[in-house]
Amino acid sequence: xxxxxxxxxxxxxxxxxxxxxxxxxxxxxxxxxxxxxxxxxxxxxxxxxxxxxxxxxxxxxxxxxxxxxxxxxxxxxxxxxxxxxxxxxxxxxxxxxxxxxxxxxxxxxxxxxxxxxxxxxxxxxxxxxxxxxxxxxxxxxxxxxxxxxxxxxxxxxxxxxxxxxxxxxxxxxxxxxxxxxxxxxxxxxxxxxxxxxxxxxxxxxxxxxxxxxxxxxxxxxxxxxxxxxxxxxxxxxxxxx
Length: 241
Description:
Number of domains: 2
Strand order of the largest sheet: 1-2
Oligomer: single chain
Distance between the termini: 37 Å
Largest sheet: 2 strands, antiparallel
Strand content: under 5%
Number of strands: 2
Radius of gyration: 21 Å
Number of helices: 7
């Protein structure tokens, strides 16, 4: 699971059989990511890399976390100004992607502080509604630095949205489906194309429906059973109580 993301930075010299670093993997032939069993699983390598260093970061003072975030941001700007302004450098390079993990860490610290306050539910719903509208209408906005504005607003809204929704059972179930949907959607898309499954309007709609149904099946048959096994292992017994 580790290092799949490195494939995105490599090309293959078919004459010599040697690997080489590339600034743009989409300009290589063959593109090495096509040999991955689950292409989108390259993100797991980045996630695990953060989990390995998280214990040494998330417990630090907020000033240290902000400092690391700024270093990651400055590195992103430096690479962008020196020609690294395309995928994979803008999307898959861990040192620059680290800032998003750190934003999440800071959002958690904000939540712990804000959760002690008594916000009116109407205020929380207003924030939730605004970020939802911004998300759904994002492609229709034509403003300078739209992406950066969205990231900032989304980051600031996370603690408030979590305070509002942390006890929503339906929201939790939808969250449980997010990873199965992510990990299976390309497989379903390829099967729909290969099997020439009849589409309704577009292939996207059929893919969404089938991916959601398949994800529900994965969650109920596999994920929940594994979770029960995990929980049973840590349940207190008569011998260790």
